[in-house]
What we know:
Blueprint: H1 3-20, H2 38-41, E1 52-55, E2 61-66, E3 70-75, H3 76-81, E4 90-94
Antiparallel strand pairs: 1-2, 2-3, 3-4
Amino acid sequence: MTTATLRPYLSAVRSTLEVAVCLENFSSQVVERHNKPEVEVRSSKELLLQPMIISRNDKEKVLIEGSINSVCVRSTAALALFKSSSYPCTIKTHFI
């Protein structure tokens, strides 16, 4: 990996994550007294952020999906590392 391409890539991932991780408690608009991660249930389009793909090259990409109360980060590098294992290759962060 060359530093010339790695540094801007990591900087873009970092700044996007800083924005996406600004989470707050948000109860369901459908079911009273329920708090579910909107990035997974997708019950209200107005609560979802625009998904972003940050790509260094064809093999190194990060997909960041955010909502008002949750974030899902998928990385092609993580997919390659965990392809043969039973561990999930998605990092999910939920506001609790």
